[in-house]
Structures are given as C-alpha cells and as structure tokens.
Specification:
The complex is a heterodimer. Chain A is mostly helical. Chain A is built from 15 helices and two strands. Classes of the chains: A mainly alpha, B mainly alpha. Chain A: Belongs to the binding-protein-dependent transport system permease family.
Amino acid sequence: MATISKTASTDVPKTGTSSKRRRREALWFYLFVSPWLIGFLVFLFGPMIASLYYSMTDWDSFTDPVWVGFQNYVTLITDDPRFWKALWHTFYYAAVSVPLGLVLGLWLANLLNKQVRARKLLRTLIYLPTLVPLVATAMIFRQVLAPNGPFNDALGLLGISGPSWLLDGDWATPALIVMSAWSAGAATVLLLAAMKGIPKELYEAGEVDGASAVRQFWSITLPHLTPIIFFNLIMGMIGAFQVFAQVYILVPKGKLPAAYAGAETMVPYLFDQAFGNYHMGYASAISWLLFLVVLVFTLIAFRTARRWVFYETEVK
Amino acid sequence: MGKARRGQGPGRLRAFRATPFTYATLIVVAAILTMPLVFVGSIALSSDATVNTNSFTLFPTEFHWENFTRVFGSELPMGRFLINSVIISLCSVAGQMLSSGLVGYAFARLRAPGKNTLFLIVIATMMIPTQITMIPQFILFRDLGWVNTYLPLIVPNFFSNAFNVFLVRQFVSRLPSQLDEAAMVDGLGFFGIYRRIMLPMLWPVLIAIGIFTLTHTWGDFMGPLIYLNDESKMPLSLGIQYITSTSAAGQSPSWNLVMVGSILLALPMIIVYYLGQKYLYEMDISGGSAGVK
C-alpha cells in the first residue's frame, strides 16, 4: 500500500498501481453505480424490451397477449386518423411553443442581465410562473382563457375580440401555447446563469470598437449562449412532444369533444388507448412511434448544431 | 474566467446599461406574468354564489378568507391530499439524494472496465420518453400488488436517474483530485472518501437535486393518475383535478376551493425556490468556475 500511495501523491498518472488495487477500485465502482444499474435494468431496459414485444401484440393486459407482428404500426399509420391528428397537434404545439419559449426566455434574460434596480424582485416575478406546478397552472388557465376571462378582456382592450379558446377546436392548441409562454421564465434562469459567465473583457473590447448594445448582444452574448440555447432547444422539444397534463386538464376529455379533438396530442392519445380502452399493445406501438419522432428530431437538431453551436475551446 | 472589476461594475458597459425602455419592458412583462396569479387569488377569495355565476373579476372584490379553512374541513379532504403529497415527495427526494451522489461520484472518480460505455448509456437514456416504459412498469407494479399504494411513485427514485447522475458527475469532476488522493494516503477506502470527503462538498448539488426532485414529484400528475384510485391516497396535484372532474353534471366545480388548492400546491414550490435558489445558481453546470465555494 505504501508504494501505491507514493505514486498517487506525486501527481504521476496512476500507471504504476497494482492490478489488485485496480480490481478493488472496479469492484467499488460497480457497487456504487449498482443503484443506477439495477434501476436501468428493472425500470428502463427490461420495460423497453417488454414494450417492444407488447407493441407487436393485441393485448388488454388481463388475458394473454396475441402476437400480431407489425399490425399495430400498420394500423396506426394507414388507418387511424385520430393518431395522425394527435401527431399533427404535437408538431404544431412543439413548433410554436419551443421557439417562442426560447426567444422570450432569451429576451427576458438579456433584460435581466443589465444593471437594473430591483433585479432580484423582477427575476423572481418572471420565474414565479415556473414554480407553479403544471396541474395548478392548467387549473388557472382554464379560468384565464375562459370566453369572458381576463385574457380575452386584455385582448378586448387592444380591440381584438378573442376566441373562446378552450371551447373551440381550432383554438385549443393555441391556448396550450399561450399557457406554455407563461412559463418562459424557466429558460431565463439557465440563460441568465450562462450570460454571467461570459468574460466582461469581451464587452470591454466591444466597447472600444464602438459596438452598440444591440451589436454586442448579437456578436458576443448570443454566440456564447448557443450551447445553452441548444440544450434548451433539445429539452424543450422533448418536453413538448410529451405534453400530457396540460391537454388532459386544460381541455378535459368528454365535456368538450370538439375542443378535445382539436388539441389531443400523442401522449394523451397513448394514455387513453392504454388506460381508457386497455389496448396495451396498440398503446405500446404509439409509445415507440413517439420515441421515433423524438429521436428523429433530436438527431436533426444535433446535425444542424454543428453549424450554429459555438463551443469555446475548453481550458483544462 | 473574467470577472467585472470591483468598484466599477459592468454598468458602465453599454451592453449592461439599463435604459428606461428596459425598465418599462420588464415591468410590463412582470405584470403580465403576475396577472394569472392575482386572478387565482381573486377566485380563491370568491363566494360560492360568484362561482355559480362564473362572474370572477381579475382583482379581488370580495374576501372570503374562510375558503382557506373550508378546504380542510369536511367539505374537501385537502388536508389528506397535502399529507399524501408530502409523504410521496419527501421519500422521493431522499431516494434521489442518497443514490445520485454515490453513482455520480463513482462515474466521476473511480476507474473500472466498461465505465465509459455505461456512462454513454446514462446519457442515452435521457432521450428515452418515459411513455415507452410506462405500460410495462404499470404491469410490473400491478403484478407486485403495488397499484393504489405510494410505492410505484417512490421506489424508482432510490435508483437515481440519468440527469442527476450527470449533474453530480459534472460537479465532482471539477473538484481537485488531490483531495481524494490525500484521503487515500491517509488510509481511507473508497466509501470513506465518499462519505467523509465528497459528501460534505456535494451538498450544493445534492440540494439542487433535492429541489428538482421535489418540483417533479410534487407537481407530478401522470404517475398518481396511473397508480392511485382511492381519493384518500391522492396527492394534491391529482386531488384538485379529481375534484373538478367529479363535480355533479351541470354543476360547476367549486372553483374558489380548487384555486385555494392550486395556491397550496404552488406555495411550497415558491418557498423552496426562495430558500434554495442560492444552491441552484451556485451549482453552475455550464462550465467555467471551480464549483467549490
């Protein structure tokens, strides 16, 4: 042990350590990561295999599953208008809410990054909506977006007569987007934290060159934030594709059939097939298609990222 | 990393100067974002008569404070909902804090064959939608007889999750490795190093993980919706939705009491954030600073 300690303490990479020590270290590693490893196998990997199998069966979860091969997938893609509608609503929601959230978040973070008085208070007020749990937010927006609710009152002040949002199939998805914009402050926190990490010298240099505040934002702030923007984009996208509670609560099923049909996204549809109709096999197939959609979009984002995400050479 | 020179502050730089326009925008935005919360307060203070006619006002015009005590009476089991939420959330927080620290530390420091592959798997799992595992997990917990208990909502948290492992690993990677080496010279084993050296330094990131877990479990809706049927076992998040969906046909739900419930649901999050924000901002996972403060 003594010789090992000596090697370790003289900053030499631990090449001289004995294989016994290495084995012991490896053993401890596996012991330490066993919670994750077991969790991965029991709650993720195992269920994924099971779900892949279920997706190729006709199964109500009470009787034995009946193998049907790719039938569920074929039906979903060729013969299920409700699925295509759900897919379209999911795209629609993600395509508007994610960029909107990013732009709003970026804009607010940039404002809060200035030397404003009462910054702490303002930061808190902007972050406050993020702290309200989704269920409560949905409850709140059922009232805010009521036909004679405050949102339409505010639109009225601008001379716009608002639609009856949640009662109208065409406006139910925009209503969900309005609610998502309310929580744009979530992105603000990360962006603001990253903004504070940008070296001030860059701005000083920009100043010397006579760059305006706007120019400094585009040339200094924004390029430095691209990794965080990218992170938010990915997470936002994944979140948007999985939207559930918002739809389930904001547009309650059954009470407003037209509105619900106009807003149903993929996860509520999956949920309804699984726990409403007990079509476990069919629902599993939906979950795999959802995964595929998320995967494709994430890969596209990573592909394009090379062109616009700017990584500083890391100093180590 | 660059820091603003003391005494001068970045305010003299154009990019950081706040113009009246900045203030005006911020105030308008803050007001718009605060309005729904004012409206919640207004509904929560409304009388039952106002609820029946749906004639809510943005700013409160009536003050039925008794609504806040009514929800704990015989009318609604909101006290029960609250206790359920607390039990589920605190157990989940404990589970994540206990497991994520160990796993993250091991990924950051210990060397073992297969480690890099495993870490790639950790990262990859972050992309998998929970819905894929939802149905098999439901079957698993149903076969274990855990449906309509808190267990399906709590137990998986004791196995950490990818994001938290990643956070801890990032955090530990930035702590000087001389610390562990010195401890090893002093004869501490790996667990000793973790418990005596690492754990005390991990608090900021563990508290952040606790906050994230709390936020997630406290507001979680889908989990309880799948696993809990008994009203007496529901957490607040599911409970308030349950109240609105089960009100008699043609009768509007007691929106005033539902909004009291929404306030009860939001308040702990606001308090936790207020108390814990310094950990969230200190954690700084974006790279750059040393991480030890």
